[in-house]
Design brief:
Elements: E1 18-23, H1 30-43, E2 48-52, H2 53-60, H3 74-97, E3 102-106, H4 112-123, E4 128-135, H5 139-150, H6 161-178, E5 188-193, E6 198-202, H7 207-218, E7 226-230, H8 235-239, H9 250-265, E8 275-278, H10 282-288, E9 294-297, H11 314-320, H12 322-330, H13 343-359, E10 363-367, H14 369-380, E11 396-403, E12 406-413, E13 419-420, E14 432-433, E15 441-447
Parallel strand pairs: 1-3, 1-4, 2-3, 4-5, 7-10, 8-9, 8-10
Antiparallel strand pairs: 5-6, 7-11, 11-12, 12-15, 13-14
Helix pairs in contact: 2-3, 5-6, 11-12, 13-14
Bound molecules: adenosine-5'-triphosphate and 6-O-phosphono-beta-D-fructofuranose.
């Protein structure tokens, strides 16, 4: 389906332009929240971008000490205002020249005067302004935030972490002297208090704003992982056919028997009280059958619907529907099978799954190739031109662990051969046995 700027499939947000203005003392998770909003919106095809005032300030003042942020420091004040103005200027340019939809202004924006200036400067262009304030008075959490992300920030590169933490606390004190929580009732705002323990919402105006609010309400920062596995090799995989509701192959059943042990190696232990989600298709239910955990079937996790091509091999599709075959490879994300779905449709179907995954702690998901590609793309920030072409092999557990500014990925490969169902662009090659390792294999990488 063709899209214009700012169109969410099934929902028109074409005329909406929003500036999300972060508000909060340092080390309250503003940058992390901003990054998550951008990733979520981009996944939904909404053009979104963060403008971080700290990045602009660093061009002139790369490593300031706490007194730079003292309001009695006039030169510091002037330079900070200049950094904010430069960020807002670039943001307005982005809205007008690149037709952006949602910009996030990431700074402390801690006084009413600063917020008034932002609301007036941006509002005059018909851009909606929505404030998102993060308030937190949990001293232990703030200290651990400082140690986790601030002592390694570019502001303190090469410095002693203890001294960096001390200076950062003094920076926070300087901000506390002038900080004013949002009380401006004529503004659109969301206040997240102590990581969403309490949420205050004021004057939400439209659909896109309400999606952002709902997303923010589901976020948490408890340590957790998400485990993803495709179903074991199916009889349709062996025959090279797509879609269908086939049983597992004998090797697929072996994978289902091995899965509890692979999950144990991947860090799932019974005390974790994990829930296993499957689709409603036989092959995922059979794959999860020996996992000793609560299970939940989701229709939304069913494989991409290939419509009239369901049950055919890629060769047969190329023979019977050559134009469709070509069109799909030209733009795989947007191509919708006759009577079926596109990757774009699938992402919309998976949105409630992502929302629930954000809310949950540990979850294991046993599902299908295209579905895992979309879920993986969300967590790992993979763009739409690449996500439908990612290799997600059979008989492999992918463990994703969200960290402060990225997601850690580990792969645990079972020692059970399976065909590769990956088809490179413009090829109709038959499914063949993939290389199989002699021992269970582990690989680790991190996206930031
Ligand atoms: P600064 O003003 O210095 O840029 P910041 O408010 O942008 O700070 P981040 O850099 O995003 O703070 O801090 C990230 C840390 O905050 C992470 O360790 C993350 O776990 C934690 N965090 C995330 N959300 C919240 C929240 N709502 N309240 C408090 N801490 C949070
Ligand atoms: O203190 C954290 C920080 O992100 C700085 O890096 C940045 O210069 C500042 O906040 C921006 O906020 P403000 O415009 O309120 O000074």
């Amino acid at each position: 389906m063709p899209r214009t700027n700012g169109t969410v499939v099934g929902t028109q947000v074409e005329d909406t332009r929003i500036c999300v203005v972060m508000v909060g003392l340092p080390a309250r998770g503003k940058s992390l929240i901003a990054g998550k909003i951008v990733r979520y919106l981009r996944w939904l095809s909404v053009d979104a971008r963060t403008f971080n005032v700290g990045t602009y300030r660093r061009q002139d003042t790369p490593q300031p000490t706490a007194d730079f942020f003292d309001t009695n420091n006039k030169e510091g004040e002037r330079m900070r205002r200049a950094a904010a103005e430069a960020a807002v200027k670039d943001m307005l340019k982005w809205f007008s020249q690149e037709k952006g939809t949602v910009a996030i202004l990431d700074a402390t924006n801690s006084t009413q005067a600063r917020r008034r200036w932002i609301a007036q400067t941006i509002g005059q262009f018909g851009i909606e302004v929505m404030f998102v304030e993060s308030k937190c008075d949990d001293e232990d959490l703030i200290m651990s935030n400082i140690m986790e992300v601030k002592t390694t920030s570019p502001d303190y590169r090469g410095q002693d972490p203890e001294l960096a933490a001390k200076d950062f606390r003094n920076r926070i004190r300087n901000y506390e002297k002038i900080y004013e929580t949002i009380t401006e009732t004529d503004y659109t705002y969301v206040k997240l208090i102590n990581v969403g323990t309490q949420v205050v919402i004021n004057c939400i105006q439209d659909y896109l704003q309400s999606r952002i609010v709902y997303f923010l309400m589901n976020l948490h920062i408890k340590p957790r992982s998400i485990w993803l596995s495709r179903h074991g090799e199916s009889m349709f995989n062996l025959a090279g056919k797509i879609g269908g509701d086939a049983d597992l192959s004998p090797r697929g059943f072996r994978y289902s028997e091995a899965l509890p042990e692979i999950c144990r190696q991947a860090g799932i232990v019974p005390e974790q009280n994990i829930t296993v989600w499957t689709s409603t298709m036989k092959r995922t239910i059979q794959t999860a059958q020996h996992l000793p955990y609560n299970k939940l079937q989701w229709k939304a996790l069913d494989e991409l619907d290939s419509g009239t091509c369901d049950g055919l091999t890629y060769e047969e599709i190329e023979e019977q529907f050559p134009e469709d075959f070509r069109a799909r490879d030209d733009d795989k994300y947007n191509y919708r099978y006759r009577g079926g779905e596109s990757y774009r449709d699938l992402v919309i179907r998976l949105e409630p799954i992502i929302m629930e995954m954000e809310r949950q702690e540990n979850v294991m998901v046993v599902t299908h190739q295209a579905v895992i590609r979309c879920i993986y793309a969300y967590f790992m920030n993979v763009p739409q031109d690449r996500s439908p072409w990612m290799e997600i092999p059979l008989h492999t557990v992918i463990k994703l662990t969200p960290k402060a500014y990225g997601t850690k990925e580990e792969r645990f490969k079972a020692n059970i051969p399976a065909v590769s169902t990956f088809r490179p662009k413009y090829s109709s090659a038959k499914h063949q046995d993939a290389d199989s390792p002699d021992v269970n294999e582990l690989s680790v990488k991190m996206n930031v």
